[in-house]
Amino acid sequence: MTDVGFIGLGTMGGPMAMNVLKKGHRLTVFDVSPKAVARLTAAGARSADSPRAVAAASDVVITMLPDAPDVERVALGADGIAAGIRPGAIYIDMSTVDPDTTQNVARTIAAKGAHMIDSPVGKTAEHAVSGTLTLMVGGPQDIVARARPVLDCMGTDFIHCGALGMGHAMKIVNNLLATTLLEINSEVLAAGIKAGLTLDTMTAVMQKTMAWNNQLAVAMPARPFAGDFAPGFMLKLAHKDCRLALTMIRKLGLAAPVGEATLAACADGIAQGAGENDVGVLLKLREERAGVTVRKTKP
Ligand code: NAD
């Protein structure tokens, strides 16, 4: 049994923390939302009044927060994790942020005699509930091995991506690609229907060609093709991930013009008020422009 601290108990962090608790670890939690905290304390977790107090009570501290500034605030603020972390403890950031943020926070954590690794997650809120997330882990082998029993409470696919920050580098390039596939699929399918094709014809052909991808095979039939645009994974978070990936790419002195177009498509959707819809709403936005719908009943 490990003393685990969990900060950020939202769509993903709430069920992830619940799974840590269910596997028999002692859990201390904090969130700015009292409702989110109450769900965990009702299940047996203790609550603390700051990230600092969570860290002071824990051998492994986890954050699952929306964006990089949130992680910096919670980790490095006056009442933050670094102010309370125990020497030898491990801080795992599971939020989707960028490698620069992780490496910056880790320097302060190391100065306190503690360790940091990154482990952003892939898949969906349903997988957070079932404890079957994909974990993309960055950090030194020995610290990752020590954190593994806690990580295994939340995920079943474990991929050690390399040094500290490489979990985050992996996650943001992955999400830039996934969002780009969703956007180009939406553009092409709406245009095909407008031209006179059917969705069944297009998917039957695409399955046999290099156009096929997991958005077409799995994600779009599950939600947007059924007209379901409730989150899930919000468009505003997809926009954030594309922004983080493109910032990293630009810092590397590289260009990603197709990725930039995806970022613009997400920003456009947010400007139209769709930011809190599932990212699959990119299809709806293309449908509206084309004056068609791309629908299929759920398989
Ligand atoms: P969410 O907005 O549902 O949850 C974030 C939680 O953090 C909320 O409960 C909020 O109150 C809390 N919070 C925010 N600022 C805080 C602070 N300063 N101190 C304490 N608590 C604070 O977001 P989510 O969907 O759970 O996503 C979390 C992270 O996981 C994001 O980086 C997201 O990109 C990533 N992610 C999400 C999904 C998904 O399907 N939703 C999938 C994979 C990865």
Fold and architecture overview:
With 299 residues, the protein is an alpha/beta fold. It folds into two domains: 3-163, Rossmann fold (3-Layer(aba) Sandwich), CATH 3.40.50.720; 169-290, N-(1-d-carboxylethyl)-l-norvaline Dehydrogenase, domain 2, CATH 1.10.1040. 53% of the residues lie in helices and 13% in strands. It contains 14 helices and nine strands. It has helices at residues 13-22, 34-42, 51-56, 68-76, 81-84, 99-111, 125-130, 141-151, 166-195, 199-206, 214-222, 235-251, 257-271, 281-290; strands spanning 3-7, 26-30, 46-47, 60-63, 90-93, 115-118, 121-122, 133-138, 155-162. The strands form two sheets. A six-stranded parallel β-sheet has the order 3-2-1-4-5-6, sandwiched between helices. Strands 7-8-9 form a three-stranded mixed β-sheet. It is elongated and about 65 Å long. It starts with a strand and ends in a 9-residue tail after the last helix. The model has no long low-confidence stretch (mean pLDDT 97). Residues 7-13, 30-33, 36, 64-66, 70, 73-74, 95-96, 121, 124-125, 232-233, 237, 241 line the site of nicotinamide-adenine-dinucleotide.
